[in-house]
Amino acid sequence: MTVDNKGTFNLTNINFQGLNINTIGEGEAIVFLHGGPGSEHRFFLPHVLPLSRKFKLVFYDQRGCGKSAPSIDGQYSMMDEVCTLELLRKELKLEKINIFGESWGSMLALLYATTYPERVNKILLTAAIGVSAEGFKTFGKELEKKLSESEKSKLSKLEEGVRNGESSIDEVLAILDKYYVYTEDSLKVKAKTSINPTVNQQIGEDILGHYDVISKLDSIKDIPIVVTQGCDDILTSKLIKELLIDYIPHSKLITIRNCGHWTVVEKPDEMNEIAHDFFNSTF
Hints:
The chain contains nine helices and eight strands. By secondary structure, it is α/β, with parallel strands linked by helices. The chain has one domain: Rossmann fold (3-Layer(aba) Sandwich). Keywords: Hydrolase. This is Proline iminopeptidase.
C-alpha cells in the first residue's frame, strides 16, 4: 500500500549488493538521484511522497552514502555511480526508467542517459548544474560570491579540518546551508542528512577533471527533459540556460519563484505538480 487509512506513507526497504533502497507506490517507476556528491536520499523525504499515489517511487543512497555500504576499495567515481544505477535498473526489472535528478544527481542523470539512452524514458532535472565541469566550477564561484570574508576564512579552516579529521562536515554545512534556500525558515523542514566527505571529495575531483557530456548529447535528443530551477538558485535560470539548456534545445526550463537551490524542500507542492504532469504525459 502506498498510503494507509491514516494517510501515512509506508516505504518498503530493499538491500541489494549493499545499497540502501526504499520504494513506495505501484505505478510507473521514477528513480530519484540525490545530490552532494555524498549525500543521501532522505533529502527527498517526505516532500515528494505524494507522487506515490500515482507512481512507484524508487529512492536509494549512492555507494558509500547514507546507509549504503562503502565501495570495496574505498574509491568513488562518476562512472561507478552510472554502473550502480544500471545494476539497480536491472534488479528492479525496469525496461526503461524515469529519472528525477537533483543537483549532483542532475549530472548523474545526464551521464547515465548518455551512456544508456535506450534505457531512459524521461528526465526531470532540478537544481541543475550543467553539461560539463564548467557548471560545477561556476556553482562554486557563485556560492563564494555570497560568502563574507569572515565566512570564507572559517570555511577554509573547517575544510582543512575535515580533511585531517579534526572538523565535521556539519560545521561546514552550518555556514553554507542558508545560501541554498530562499528563506532560512525552509531549513526547518529539510531532513538532517549526512554527507560522506570521502565520496564528496573524490567525485567532486572527478567532476572537475572529467565531467563533460556535450559530445554525447545527440544520443538523448529524443528523450523528454524538463529542468526546474529556483529563481534564487546559486545557478540562476539565466546561468543554467547558458550551462545546460542551450546545449539541449529540446529541453524545457521552468523557473520556480521565491526558491533557492533546494526546490524540493522549499516548493514541494509546485515540484510535485510539475513532476506529476511531466511523468504522466505522453509525447
